[in-house]
Amino acid sequence: MSVKEIGIERKKYADILDSNISAFLNGAGKNIALLGGRKSGKSTIAKRLMKTEKNIAVVYVDFGKISMSPESFAVEFIGAICWQFLHEPVSEYKNFMGLDNLLKYALEMKSARAHEILKSIQNEISKIKPDQRLLAQLAFNFSYALADEKGIKILLILDNFENIFDLNNFEQIKDIISLVNFNHESVKYIAASSAQTDVKRHLRNFEFLEIQNFDKNEIMEIVKKATGKADNKLAEIILELSKGVPIAANEILKNLNEKNGLIEKNDASASFFSQLLCKNGVLYNYCHDSLNYYLNRTRGQVLSKIILKVIASEKELRLSDIARKIYRSAPVTKSLLERLISADIIYRKDNKFYFYDPMLKLWLKLSSMGYEFDDEMDEKNFKEVLELI
Fold first, then answer.
1. How high is the mean pLDDT in each 10-residue block of the chain (389 residues)?
2. In the structure, how many helices (H) and strands (E) does the chain have?
3. Which strands form 154-159's sheet, in the order they lie side by side?
4. How far apart are CA 60 and CA 312, in angstroms?
5. What domains lie within the chain, and their CATH numbers?
6. Which residue, 171, 22, 142, 131, is CA-closest to 79?
């Protein structure tokens, strides 16, 4: 049984969102940005509202799955809204990604204004040189028109929000955020993203809610729900190994249940490092994908990766230390470090550099030293790993 399966609720964040919904219903409410590392639970926290909230229309759109050219964005964004508004099954989702079908669905929704917007999009796309700025504007106007005409309130959950900035690459748009009316009284937003620096820079009229790793009390709750008892020793083992990283805590507990109770720290550690260092492990793939995610948001990826390996392998390095180890000048190294800071993978404190994600740091340190396995890790390698951490 995994943490996800037993439904662990990040209550302190859920309470804030619930309180904001109440304010929204009473004519107030804020737009909220849920920020945190990859797999920190942002999506789960936000999507919970789709099940619990009955007084407003909650619509979830994953910008990681929406095409980010103005023409496709206009159709697919509206399609995702219509699909959920009509409560159609997943098997029908693909049918909402085409403009001709959307015009029919708009009639089913009995919204003249929604249908009018889709007709405007159809007319614009048919032109040799469509107005891409207008298309993006119409896409966002759709939810406002729907809310006004139906007399309802809509909460738009926009996951992987950072992908929207790809629309800024189109000459006619440049600043996609300027096209969004974040002050509409009947439509509010939750933007979820791991690109914390970019989102904070662009969404200045949002309240930022930063998702932290599990603390000791939350680990205790997880253990109790999974095992039926408050096992302080087990909670301490999970917290020490996972450093509170949600996906890591989840995997440790999952393997504990699958193997009928890994109680001893040595056994739990063996299972944990197997997941972290074997290529078929959940934690290995989490770290591998996370590294690629962050590096893809930087320039100069080769040197950036070398810098990350250096920071992961050493303690409390200053800029001059890092420059010396990568054989580059201080100005060049500083520029690379600033890119990594902007990508939210490291941070600076007291002129030293640290990882945000302790799991990624540990994986990068050990895998860079050769502790990376195709199938399984033997006892000798396990003992060597324990001596290195």
1. 49 91 92 93 90 89 93 94 89 89 83 89 92 95 92 94 94 92 93 94 91 90 81 88 90 70 68 91 94 88 93 91 94 94 94 94 94 85 84
2. 17, 7
3. 57-62, 154-159, 187-193, 32-35, 207-210
4. 36
5. 31-210 (3.40.50), 264-389 (1.10.10.10)
6. 142
